[in-house]
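Suppose you are handed a protein chain with no further information: no name, no annotation, nothing but its sequence. What can you learn? This example shows the usual starting point.
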Amino acid sequence: LSYLPLENLKVTDLDTAKALTATTSGAVATVPLEVPITNDKQSAHLRITGTLTDPSYTVENGDLVFSRTMKGLRNTVLLPAGWDVSEVSQSGTIGQYNGRAFVALINLNAENQYTVRIRARRAAASSDVRP
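A reasonable first move is to predict its three-dimensional structure. Written in structure tokens, the prediction is:
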């Protein structure tokens, strides 16, 4: 995940529901599996979560804009408090989590990566909140 330096990295084995311990060396994180993969018919289903402090957020004409190349099947972008989603360049699900807007994206195009651009406006009730 060198392209995506996550803080508070958590890895969960979805087959066993057990948390796995990640070790990092520089920008490289490794996670030993409880049951090693020994042939090409085996697979591991992992959930990787963490926090990304990303300079991809900018402000354009008073709107918050997030633009980034994403990799993987599923990605979720949680916006700062006080912002509502007004535009998304990819198909996704828009919702609220702890009072903050999010966009959940699923890569259905079988591409290794895709670019997403999210535009948000200040929420009406939270006009004094800053990104």
